[in-house]
Amino acid sequence: MESVVASDGTPAAAHPMAAGLLDHQSQPICASRYRRVGEDGAGVLFTGDTVAVNPDGESLAFMRSYPNRIPLSSSVVLRIADHLDRYDFDRIYGNFGRAITHDAKARLRSSALRHAAWARGDYDHLTGPG
Predict the structure, then answer these.
(1) Where is 43: in which H helix or E strand?
(2) What is the predicted pLDDT for the residue at 109?
(3) pLDDT of the residue at 88
(4) DSSP per-residue string spanning 51-89
């Protein structure tokens, strides 16, 4: 499983929010951890590099290998998003010190749909000729 850190860079296992984390793999290549926290019981998703918070803090990238820049296919990304949709969460803490601090579930879904569309070639016409 990938090394997971919170937004402050603390390894998830050492982070105060890590107690009671649910370890799972949403797919054979996608490790993540989930926890319900806060007074409202809102969940937090800790992700590795397969589902990575982008520098904008508003969207996510989906990579088979983030360090080697190998993307995932549209069908795999949608399968991962469908699996993670079963959890209630409003925040995502990524592996590289980035976080989505609100509306994370909706942002994960919209990012997955965007990635899938580009991976399928839906926007190839925007890249210009040959």
Answers:
(1) strand 43-47
(2) 98
(3) 86
(4) EEE-TTSS-EEEEEETTTTEEPPHHHHHHHHHHHTTS--
